[in-house]
User: Fold this.
Amino acid sequence: MYLDICDLLSIQYPIIQGAMAWISDAGLVSAVSEAGGLGVLATGHIDAEGCIKAIKEIRERTNKPFAVNIMLLSQQADSIVKAVCEQKVPVVTTGAGSPGKYIKMFKESNIKVLPVAPSVAIAKRMEKDGADAVIAEGCESGGHIGKITTMALVPQVVDAVNLPVIAAGGIADGRGMAAARMLGASGFQIGTRFIVAKECSVHQNYKNRIIKAKDIDTTTTGASTGHPVRVIKNKLTRKFDELEKNNASAEELDALGRGALRKAVTDGDIENGSVMSGQIAGLVNKEQTAEEIIKELFEQYKNIICNIKI
Ligand code: TUI
Assistant:
């Protein structure tokens, strides 16, 4: 079903900023929302108190709608859901699991729910559970990913559910948005390009690494534990490869990954830290404000869509 995602979410442009743990904080979220997209606060790395503080900070900086992402693998998910409902945020996105048990609470607080679905079966379950739209996220995305590409996933999810579909994974410019629109998507989630937004507080080394990245610079770690994570190749990923080759236990792999994202994002250690990034990083080549990014994305998208020839 095509439905104007801007009407559903009361935003100006159909651009949703992907939640990124340690990265999408109140500064980036409020800048994206203020520019007319949907800023999404990541909570995978914070507790309920930190989440409430960030929500208040966002509200001090913008009156426009924003979302909070619930990372369902987080030990704090229950308390963050409670906080988000009390704060009556307008929109929630979810990742890394099924939000089914929370949907009643979200609805009672008048919160729109947009779960990430990495497969058709999961998207159908999200629809049955009461989602307002689904985010079909292909494995080109950075971070924790599913198994199939955006190109293959989006049209299959569009055919399988009677909900608006937001495409995610491998989109960083107006061409990617137009391509996803052709597959039936009503909105576009973009993560990697917003890492280099001027308002993004990630360490400058991380931004520079994204800007320098080439098409084949990402890999996945943790495939053997059932939680593959897309990151930029470095010393850490070579250690993961070595451990996985030697059939290391899930505990050993978890220990290597623990604290690694913070090391890259906060300390700027891009060799020993986890530099999560989508495969589209090779296309991201300059720092801009969130407003410049959103205006450029939409202008390019509009020009393509309005000039399509057959
Ligand atoms: O969640 C993400 N991306 C993330 S979370 C994250 S933090 C992390 N760090 C290390 C290991 C694991 C996580 C970094 N990146 N994207 C959304 C996403 N959701 N990708 C895949 C899924 C997903 C998977 C299974 C959504 C639903 C699902 O359902 C399973 C079920 O049985 O219900």
Observations:
- The chain has two domains: 2-201+285-306, 214-276.
- Residues 214-276 form one domain.
- The chain has 14 helices and eleven strands.
